[in-house]
Write a sequence for this structure.
């Protein structure tokens, strides 16, 4: 079951390579004529062909990868053969670690790695907790007054506050929050911007200017020795790096700051929004998590984290991971030629019924019950796997769990309306607002 070739596939025998099975051209043509979302085409390709499948959207072949063994081969075992090219978010994040490649990426990742694991993470615990308490206090006010609020906006505000405190040492003020809304605006626009870089920049020039202004003020304040109540933040580490490493210019510091802001709040906010929407449809999952243990206990924390993991299974932080074959390779017994575009799709792997029984059903017990989830590392990878896996995995899980420990025992959102569908851009987002009021606390 856990062979590299994937679920149920025989081991590869050298000399038996064969072309990747390709979807019929009519399938792609019908999809193009219907104007559907890319996920719909990928779903049909996966259903008809399997976990390694080819199709053509243009002159170059594209290979879809959802088989766990093939996922691990591409992302973890041979990242040198399957490389990232220019990232769609480069317009926003510049040369930050998300879009950097080669030696520059290795240097930047080494600097940031220690900040998001072990001791580094403990530096941010208090800041995350304060952001969660601030959100909980706002929700207490909503409960008292009966005010309608948007759950998605609240989750964005919390996640942005948590990363801003961790970067600068300061809580998020209303003015900075308004200006940083431009980060989400540019991120949401990226999939629809013109292909020409100049035209794309012009389309979002005003938002980019707002982002640059906020970043410049924060850099100047940190360089001037200004630190928040919890001491220096991650931005100060970037500035200190600039005194010893000439590549850390003000522009690169800006790019890393914006990268951490964008990646550090957008995905977490989206996950938390989906989680509240899922709990609205599956209230027993919330009750089971709270019944798992007393407040502050390891048992309750584990149950709450399982809620997050099951949400990430259904709506992974990055639903598709593009790669480019830099050289000829054999993938799960198939020949992949250099120049092939490769789409690794956690969204479809996580919904494969051969891996996840009843995959469309929201069931957090998959992550607490023995044998509840597949053991293959390529079967569950909402933050990617391998050397380019998301740096902020532990940060995201920590802030999500802390916030839910504050909110779930006290409040249940009653939604006035819920989004009817998902929007597949860089992330999978609810396609619409999520207005709600708060029900009284549980007895």
């Amino acid at each position: 079951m856990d062979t590299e070739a994937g679920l149920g596939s025989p081991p590869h025998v050298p000399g038996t390579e064969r072309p990747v099975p390709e979807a019929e051209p009519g399938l792609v043509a019908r999809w193009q004529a219907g104007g559907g979302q890319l996920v719909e085409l990928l779903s049909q390709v996966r259903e008809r062909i399997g976990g390694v499948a080819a199709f053509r959207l243009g002159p170059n072949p594209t290979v879809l990868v959802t088989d766990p063994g093939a996922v691990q081969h591409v992302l973890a075992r041979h990242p040198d053969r399957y490389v990232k090219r220019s990232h769609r978010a480069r317009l926003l994040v510049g040369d930050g670690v998300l879009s950097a490649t080669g030696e520059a990426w290795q240097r930047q990742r080494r600097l940031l790695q220690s900040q998001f694991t072990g001791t580094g993470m403990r530096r941010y615990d208090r800041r995350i907790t304060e952001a969660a308490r601030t959100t909980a206090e706002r929700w207490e006010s909503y409960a008292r007054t009966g005010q309608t609020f948007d759950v998605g906006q609240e989750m964005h505000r919390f996640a942005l506050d948590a990363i801003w405190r961790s970067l600068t040492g300061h809580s998020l003020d209303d003015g900075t929050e308004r200006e940083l809304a431009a980060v989400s605006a540019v991120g949401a626009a990226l999939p629809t911007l013109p292909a020409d870089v100049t035209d794309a920049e012009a389309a979002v020039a005003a938002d980019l200017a707002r982002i640059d202004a906020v970043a410049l003020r924060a850099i100047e304040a940190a360089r001037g020795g200004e630190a928040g109540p919890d001491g220096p933040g991650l931005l100060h580490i970037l500035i200190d790096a600039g005194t010893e490493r000439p590549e850390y210019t003000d522009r690169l510091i800006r790019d890393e700051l914006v990268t951490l802001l964008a990646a550090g709040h957008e995905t977490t906010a989206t996950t938390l929004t989906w989680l509240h929407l899922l709990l609205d449809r599956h209230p027993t999952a919330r009750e089971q998590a709270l019944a798992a243990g007393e407040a502050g206990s390891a048992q309750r924390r584990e149950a709450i984290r399982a809620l997050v993991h099951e949400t990430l299974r259904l709506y992974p932080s990055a639903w598709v991971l593009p790669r480019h074959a830099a050289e000829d390779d054999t993938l799960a017994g198939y020949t992949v030629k250099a120049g092939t575009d490769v789409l690794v799709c956690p969204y479809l792997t996580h919904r494969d019924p051969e891996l996840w029984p009843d995959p469309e059903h929201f069931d957090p017990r998959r992550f607490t019950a023995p044998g509840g989830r597949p053991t293959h590392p390529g079967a569950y990878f909402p933050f990617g796997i391998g050397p380019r896996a998301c740096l902020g995995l532990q940060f995201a899980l920590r802030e999500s769990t802390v916030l839910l420990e504050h909110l779930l025992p006290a409040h249940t959102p009653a939604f006035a309306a819920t989004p009817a569908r998902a929007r597949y851009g860089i992330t999978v987002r609810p396609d619409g607002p999520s207005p709600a009021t708060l029900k009284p606390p549980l007895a």
About this structure: The first strand starts at residue 18 and ends at 19. The mean pLDDT is 91.
